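Check out a protein:
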Amino acid sequence: MGKSGGFVSIGIAFTTGSGLLRNLQVVCEALMRDGGKIDRITYSKDEDGTEWVTIEPKGSDLDLSQIQYYGSITLSTARFGRRDQIVTVSLKTEVDFEGLLIDLDWEDLFVDTNETESIVRATDSVERLLIDVYRSTSFAYAVAGHEIELDWAPETLLQDRKVIESLSLSVIPVKDGLKVVHGSIALDGMTPQDDKSSNRR
C-alpha cells in the first residue's frame, strides 16, 4: 500500500445547544465499547487559552463535565480493528454549530498488507461507529476523510452536493434513517473509490 500518512479525521456536527459535553460522552463511550480507556483529558480554564489543565483519569468512571474550553480527549480503542489504537477527540465550537473531530493515525488505521481489504475494513468501521453514535444522539451530519476539518455549518453542507460528493464519507440524517455517501477518493486520501450512496436504518 502506498503511503499517504497523517491522519484520517471523522467530524460530527451538532446544532448549537445540543449538549456538546453529553455528545462527547456518547462518542467516547462508543469508541471504547469494544475495549479501550481514556488516557488523557486536556482543556483550557479560560477562553484565551492561557491556563491549561491535563488530567490522566484513573478507574473506569467517564466524567467529562469538568472540560471547559478547547477540550480534547486522548483514548485507546479497539473499534477500528486493532487493540489500543490511540485516537484524539477534540471539541469544536463555531458560531453556527458545534462538533467533535476524531483524529486517527493513518498508519494505525491502514495496517493490512492488502490495500483493498484495509480500506474496506476501515470504511466499514467508521460507518458502524457513526451509525452507533446516531442511535444514541442525533447529529446534523458526519463526515470522514484524510485530514479533513469540521468547517461546514449544517445548513451549508446539507445544501452543497458538490462538497458532500468531494468527501470520502458523509453520513446525513434523512427521514427514515441515515444516508451514507461515498465520494470518489477513499479514506486513505489517495485511492479512487466508486461514488455511491445508500440509506441505512
